[in-house]
């Protein structure tokens, strides 16, 4: 150890090839309860302690897209879909790359009177390439009154208390049996019981990789394959599945991955 320390603390006076620590020395530094002195030792320790975590964090930040992970637990309750407790995280998560250009080849099709036409224009380059700024306001509210509670993103599970769970949608406080509306026109691709915590769930495909889902419903008013218009009632809100009370868990899904719905509403 003494030899390695002296080398690390002083400028390399020998050829580079002779400087690196042996595996034994690296292991000794890693094991040591006391921080080794010298820059090299500190770097080694920092690398060992933080390298992997940082990479993961950067990768997540770079994609900007949250993984739609639904992991069935031993009790059959999905961590990703357990809901309701608000989390002190007021900042909106940016959900897509911000430097992707959007084509407005036929702006006449989209207008304030034709929101689905507008959405279609946005999706011409595929949903995953639509910037949050461009996507904002393209989906209609799934409830008459939106009272946001638990936001999209990493949070502490309100039932299990586990840390760092991915909350795959935006929760809205709403009484049970309140009308739930399609956020845009499309085709119903799922209408039934979601085995991983969503309870009664409806999924509407809006085309070009964009879907929305409505969860914990008390009843479902549409069937798979049915075409719906923006604003059509598709269900009544409820608290079925992994839910701690009446609310709507609303998801926006881009290319099979959930993103922050607030970027689209
Ligand atoms: Zn939720």
UniProtKB/TrEMBL annotation:
CDD domains: M23_peptidase. It comes from the Bacteria. SUPFAM superfamilies: Duplicated hybrid motif. GO terms for molecular function: metalloendopeptidase activity. Residues 166-261 form the M23ase beta-sheet core domain. It holds the Pfam family Peptidase_M23. Keywords: Signal. InterPro entries: Cell_wall_metabolism_enzyme (IPR050570), Dup_hybrid_motif (IPR011055), M23ase_b-sheet_dom (IPR016047). This is M23 family metallopeptidase. It comes from Arthrobacter wenxiniae.
